[in-house]
Amino acid sequence: MYRELSVQQKMWLTFRRNRPALIGAVVTILIIMIAIFAPCIAPHDPLIQDPAIRLEGMTPDHRLGTDDFGRDVLSRIIYGSRISLVIGLASVLLGMVVGTIVGMIAGYYRGKVETLIMRGVDVMMCFPDLILAIVITAVLGANLVNLVITLGLVMVPRFARLAHGQLLSLTESEYVLAARSIGFHVPRILGRHIFPNIFGELFVAATLWVGVAIRLEANLAFVGLGIAPPTPTWGNMIREGVDVMISAPWISIYSGLAILITILAFNMLGDGLRDIADPRLRGI
Fold it and tell me: Is the pTM of this model over 0.85?
């Protein structure tokens, strides 16, 4: 019965049977909805300060307590999801676009072009992601756009290597050789004949690496290179909570849990997408 199903049905059944992937998908959608409807969900304005209730624990009016300035922690976590998701998704998208183009050019032309590009990629990958992000941020400055560019550049080598490896296995395929013999231009061959066949792998990797981008943004915020306060971000909240960890541990703990849950959800979703992208794992 399973063999008689279409490819799309088999992919859906494979994904549905993967409980962690389903949970990851549900949690990811929930986090995205929370970020979109933050003004409707947050019980308080995340920027309003009330010194009279600073470092107050959990109360009916402040479910997760307040911070050192008397701001509601729950509201700041809800609004902080917007920054993390925007930076995570936008930077991975930027890295995927640039990295895929670079990797495809290197894999298609080979020779000196491939050597020059891939050695440059290797040099970038020699640096730990956080160190490379800190250097780029120090040069560009810390704001929303620059952080997206910074983390996008950090993601470029990952996608370049993936696209390069995928393309090497396709350049001698019959449909690529046929396109060359007909006289199609290189952009058309890469864009219409090769890219659709590697997009699945790139998309799955992008889903997994969104969590990496969110973690890097939090790390940059923790060392003071993130979005400037008082804009709520999870990394800033962890940094602010370190100074009062003994008297008010909930500030850092709850914002850290928000990062943990988000990264875990994207990773579980990515693992499920990887399963359905592999024909061997869906019985085809």
Answer: yes
